[in-house]
Design brief:
- There is one protein chain.
- This protein is an alpha+beta fold.
- 29% of the residues lie in helices and 40% in strands.
- The protein has one domain: Nuclear Transport Factor 2, Chain: A (Roll).
- It is built from three helices and six strands.
- A six-stranded mixed β-sheet has the order 2-1-6-5-4-3.
- The longest helix is centred in the first third of the chain and has 23 residues.
- The chain is globular, with a radius of gyration of 15 Å.
């Protein structure tokens, strides 16, 4: 990987780290700070079709069922798509207060799509799907 790709990868990793940190702080605005205005988030049963919709739904969640939660994230894959796009695949889960690990049944596989706009890496799309049970 060239130095510029190494710098791009580090910048993308920093965006993810900032998003995870904002989640842990219950900061919906901080969580979407590095999302494109037209970002999408797709989760089972849900389509959030802009940064503002994602922010608003996360603010409600952080005030309610996700209050005090954090996330577990293990990166499974990373690849660039052309000069200005990248895809990150991770295994993730929500760690609720008082718990020390995410149950296997609550894990998801996630796809993050990044776009470089005006020299800055931003999250353009996020999608997750439950991890299949062993043997499926």
């Amino acid at each position: 990987m060239s130095d510029s790709r190494a710098e791009d990868k580090a910048a993308i990793q920093a965006v993810l780290a900032d998003s995870y940190e904002a989640w842990e702080s219950g900061d919906a605005e901080g969580m979407v700070a590095d999302y494109t205005p037209d970002a999408t988030a797709i989760m089972p049963g849900s389509l959030r079709d802009s940064r503002e919709v994602i922010r608003a739904s996360m603010a409600l969640a952080f005030a309610g069922p996700l209050k005090g939660s954090s996330t577990y994230n293990r990166q499974l894959g990373f690849r660039f798509v052309g000069r200005d796009a990248a895809i990150v695949i991770s295994k993730s889960g929500i760690l609720f207060p008082g718990h020390t690990e995410v149950p296997d049944t609550a894990m998801v596989n996630a796809t993050w799509v990044f776009e470089k706009r005006d020299g800055r890496w931003l999250i353009a799309a996020y999608h997750n799907s439950p991890v299949p049970a062993p043997g499926q």
